[in-house]
UniProtKB/TrEMBL annotation, chain A:
It comes from Nitratireductor aestuarii. Keywords: ATP-binding, Nucleotide-binding, Nucleotidyltransferase, Transferase. It comes from the Bacteria. Coiled coil: none annotated. Heterodimer composed of CysD, the smaller subunit, and CysN. With CysN forms the ATP sulfurylase (ATPS) that catalyzes the adenylation of sulfate producing adenosine 5'-phosphosulfate (APS) and diphosphate, the first enzymatic step in sulfur assimilation pathway. APS synthesis involves the formation of a high-energy phosphoric-sulfuric acid anhydride bond driven by GTP hydrolysis by CysN coupled to ATP hydrolysis by CysD. PANTHER family: SULFATE ADENYLYLTRANSFERASE SUBUNIT 2. Residues 29-255 form the Phosphoadenosine phosphosulphate reductase domain. This is Sulfate adenylyltransferase subunit 2. It catalyses: sulfate + ATP + H(+) = adenosine 5'-phosphosulfate + diphosphate. GO terms for biological process: hydrogen sulfide biosynthetic process; sulfate assimilation. Gene3D superfamilies: HUPs (3.40.50.620). It is an enzyme of class 2 (transferase).
């Protein structure tokens, strides 16, 4: 008998180990659920880690109110089918002030409806550990982050003063108000995620598969017109195009790529010849180099 | 020429994708780190590897061009270090502060590379990267040669169990690709590293900036006959030799979804185990057999290193997080004192006598550094005297724990042989440790210093330590009499304590039931505690049904001569049933309580008690006065 022998089995075992460490060490953990492919994998791994029990923590979705409609439908269906305890948090102050990406810009919208909303939700429930689906291959500052990433009482990350993380021994100790963000998918790559979804038959939103969708070309990127809140410029025309998404977020901030790949296999095939990274579709990251680090220091995931 | 990069490939149909995935899954993984002194070109080397293996996307390349113009240190050339130095402070200062993990693959292998900082003040981040690596690429600047940091990183790599080294003599272009320079650095390094016992040390002359000997062998160094860096990384056999290692399974989490399922979750640290195999849990000690190996994808027949599973045992054992399930033949150590190699990370130094938390993969216990044996000189690996370990220093320490833990020597098993040290006030991770060996109690000076003994403690209290053992049926009046006697003794300045049968079952003995085995264990534990209290100089009043003669005799044997006084509180069963102060007889008679003494479990009355109190028709005060008189006559109070 050989030990764990495939790469995905190694990654799966490591993620399960990490999740069990959290369950064993924290009083009130929560799993952040963003409805995307990484979240889908995270949830699937949580089901595996605690089988035959259910995961001993709730799932939290921070809803910016600008997600693709299909994402919300998918979220509610998954919660019903898998029977997990779903919490949804919306920053009501932001809603009252009418904060949105078109009126206030991507940066402010993300800060208020995502970063601040997340902080509100964590404080409201008193969570001392929060799982996120971030991977180190996504972005340069993520590549620097620990698997168990300490946050002070103000939810801030101090990248210059991270706890050493030796072997598989995780320092889970926090004082009141402090917390740890935990990233079980740290060592997975985008390609690993897709292969795992394929092999394990993990449900993901159809937005990842190519279909004819109404889009406009804005600044060289395809933005989907998901509802009538999207204001069109005089020269913009809504067209139907075969597009899919490599990453899912707020629909005005997530660009589609043109693609014919309408099966998972074809998506993986396209991945293999892809020439740009998935975060290119995230408009929010392009403001300046180091913008992800800045957001993370403020409490973004 | 090597065939490089998994991408782009010609995979456009579903079948191609399936076969591609199958091929990907069977690739081996090599985890390595780049280390060495600052400015030796570590980040540049990794950027070069990613770039030349075509793993830099177009948008990342565009960002790199922009960044190179702004922060670059190579004039108009691309500065590959900026591909990995992801923190703003790093880009501004042009240095690496924390470890970055990068992923790439070739047709032969997958790689996770940890790019670690060279500055001495960030050594802890280098250790973080090294702790999960199989191989270290130690960079040396050909123009500068070996530096203290080169040696420090090499020693840390060795201590952390890395068995394979690549000595990458970088910037060889700056010395005109000179073979003499390369040979001199290689020989000096080998002379130093010989003592550290690496399985392989491969020296390679490279230029990370220009790509010489990184992917392909360089035409600029015809004299070099070895492999390029990537060739070596693709082919080196860095798997730990694991055959025949004993089974180790540190329990992470107990999974109890309902009363019918109790599973122990964990990752197999070494060895293998199958359903039906016998296992030993050394602490708290228990034996069992594997009943099931549970996973979400179905039960397994056997399980081996690296798999995360849930074990179900064939019997109830009292184990929780921190226990280690083992093969019964080759046992791990269970000890509360041990020696270990320590790498210190914190600004405030390690000082003997100070308390820290020792945390292993799944256990955690308070620990005192009882002794700092020596510090290791990073230039020549020699031990030297020291009174403390400063930040980034390495030494051998002895620890004394508040409770025993289970471990192996680090060289036997990295998972069960490693620990971290946590500051209890700040919660910072202040050090990393590698177990060497347990230290025996016999060698413990604390047990030889018995100047303060029982006689001295009794003298101080001006009393004769004793154990007053009250035995009798439930409801016979043991506790009432003991309580009243203690009040009187206390009032007259005696130092006393009551061990009450009901009370100890709420704490010390809450895991015990009322079967014969459990009753015996109940009495054994109380006897041991009573003995310790008497040793502390106290008058101990034990109020316990203690139905069996054998166990009362055992309790007497544990105590010193004339120290144990058996007091039989003799109340007829019928009278106890009528009194029934806790309503227990009523329930026992209705069969609601099993194994109730006097009803369906025997009471063996003492044949020759020291004091025989017949309670019928007498008040508690009267009985206590009789007892007190007996004790005073014999000098007990």
């Amino acid at each position: 008998m050989r030990a764990v022998h495939t790469h995905l089995q190694r990654l799966e075992a490591e993620s399960i180990h990490i999740m069990r460490e959290v369950a064993a060490n924290f009083a009130k953990p929560v799993m952040l659920y963003s409805i995307g492919k990484d979240s889908s994998v995270l949830l699937h791994l949580a089901m595996k880690a605690f089988y035959p029990a259910k995961p001993p923590f709730p799932i939290l979705h921070v809803d910016t109110t600008w997600k693709f409609r299909e994402m919300i439908e998918f979220r509610d269906r998954m919660a019903a089918e898998r029977g997990f305890d779903l919490l949804v948090h919306i920053n009501q102050e932001g809603v009252r002030e009418g904060i949105g990406p078109f009126t206030h810009g991507a940066g402010l919208h993300t800060h208020v409806m995502k970063t601040l909303a997340l902080r509100q939700a964590l404080e409201k429930h008193g969570f001392d550990a929060a799982f996120g689906g971030a991977r180190r291959d996504e972005e340069k500052s993520r590549a620097k982050e620990r698997i168990f990433s300490f946050r002070n009482a103000a939810h801030a990350w101090d990248p210059k003063n991270q706890r050493p993380e030796m072997w598989k021994i995780y320092n889970t100790r926090v004082d009141a108000g402090e917390s740890i963000r935990v990233f079980p998918l740290s060592n997975w790559t985008e390609l690993d995620i897709w292969q795992y979804i394929l092999l394990e038959n993990i449900p993901i939103p159809d937005l990842y598969l190519a279909a004819r969708r109404p889009v406009v070309n804005r600044g060289g990127q395809w933005i989907m017109v998901d509802d009538d809140r999207m204001p069109l410029q005089p020269d913009e025309v809504v067209e139907e195009r075969m597009v899919r998404f490599r990453t899912l977020g707020c629909y005005p901030l997530t660009a589609a790529v043109e693609s014919e790949a309408d099966t998972l296999e074809e998506v993986v095939a396209e991945m293999l010849i892809a020439q740009s990274s998935e975060r290119q579709g995230r408009l929010i990251d392009h403001d300046e180099a180091g913008s992800m680090e800045k957001k993370k220091r403020e409490g973004y995931f | 020429m090597l065939q490089v990069a998994a991408r782009p490939i010609d995979a456009t149909s579903a079948t191609d994708v399936q076969s591609y995935i199958a091929a990907q899954q069977n690739k081996t993984l090599l985890r390595f780190l780049t280390c060495g002194s600052v400015d030796d070109g570590k980040s540049t080397l990794i950027g070069r590897l990613l770039y030349d293996t075509k793993l830099v996307f177009e948008d990342q390349l565009a960002a790199l061009r922009k960044d190179s113009e702004r922060h670059g240190t190579n004039g108009s050339d691309l500065d590959f270090a900026l591909l990995v130095d992801g923190l703003e402070a790093e880009r501004e200062q042009g240095i690496t502060i924390d470890v970055a993990y990068r992923f790439f693959a070739t047709a032969k292998r997958k790689f996770i590379v940890a790019d670690t900082p060279g500055h001495e003040q960030y050594t802890r981040n280098m250790a973080t990267g090294a702790s999960t690596a199989d191989l270290a690429v130690v960079l040396v600047n050909a123009k500068v040669g070996l530096l203290p940091q080169t040696r420090r990183h090499t020693i840390i790599a060795s201590l952390l169990g890395i068995r394979h080294i690549v000595l990458a003599v970088n910037k060889i272009d700056l010395v005109g690709y000179d073979q003499g320079v390369f040979n001199a650095i290689r020989d000096e390094y080998n002379a130093f590293a010989d003592a550290l016992g690496f399985a392989s040390v491969q020296a390679i002359p490279i230029s990370a900036r220009h790509g010489d000997n990184v992917i392909d062998r360089s035409a600029n160094m015809e004299w070099y006959e070895g492999p390029s860096l990537l060739e070596h990384l693709e082919t080196v056999d860095a798997e730990e030799p694991l055959r025949g290692r004993p089974f180790r399974f540190p329990v992470q989490y107990v999974n109890r979804p309902n009363a019918n399922f109790r599973g122990y979750c964990g990752t197999v640290a070494s060895g293998r185990i199958a359903v039906g195999d016998e296992v030993l849990i050394p602490h708290p000690r228990a034996m069992a057999r594997i009943k099931r190996i549970v996973t979400h994808d179905g039960d397994l027949d056997e399980v081996a290193r690296g798999q995360a599973v849930t074990l179900v045992l064939d019997r109830e054992v009292d184990i929780s997080r921190g226990a280690v399930v083992c093969s019964p033949d080759r046992k791990p150590h269970v000890a509360d004192q041990f020696a270990a190699n320590v790498v210190w990370f914190n600004e405030s130094p390690l000082v003997p006598g100070r308390m820290y938390l020792v945390r292993t993969e799944t256990d955690q216990v308070s620990a005192k550094v009882s002794q700092l044996r020596h510090r290791i000189n990073v230039n020549n690996t020699a031990p030297e005297d020291a009174t403390s370990l400063e930040m980034n220093e390495i030494g051998v320490c002895e620890f004394s724990l508040q409770a025993p833990i289970t471990f192996d020597a680090f060289e036997e098993n990295k998972s069960t042989g490693s620990f971290i040290l946590i500051d209890r006030m700040t919660n910072a991770t202040v050090g990393a440790g590698m177990f060497l060996q347990p230290l025996r109690r016999a060698a413990n000076i604390q047990w030889q210093k018995l100047d303060v003994n029982k006689a001295a403690r009794a003298e101080q209290k001006q009393q004769q330590p004793s154990i007053l053992w009250f035995t009798g049926l439930s409801g016979s009046g043991k506790s009432t009499i003991a309580n009243l006697l203690e009040r009187k003794l206390h009032a007259s300045g005696r130092h006393t304590y009551i061990l009450d049968g009901d009370n100890v079952r709420h704490g010390l003995n809450r895991d015990l039931g009322f079967s014969q085995e459990d009753r015996i264990e109940n009495i054994r534990r109380v006897s041991e505690v009573a003995k310790l209290m008497a040793d502390a100089g106290l008058i101990v009043l034990v109020s316990l049904i203690s139905p069996y003669r054998a166990e009362r005799a055992m309790a007497r044997e544990l105590a010193d001569k004339n120290e144990f006084i058996e007091i039989f509180v003799d109340t007829p069963l019928q009278e106890c049933i009528e009194r029934d102060p806790k309503g227990l007889y009523a329930r026992a008679l209705k069969d609601e309580i099993k194994n109730f003494t006097g009803i369906d479990s025997p009471y063996e009355a003492p044949e020759a008690p020291d004091v025989h109190l017949k309670t019928s028709g007498r008040s508690a005060e009267d009985l206590v006065a009789e007892l007190e008189g007996w004790l005073r006559e014999r000098g007990y109070c």
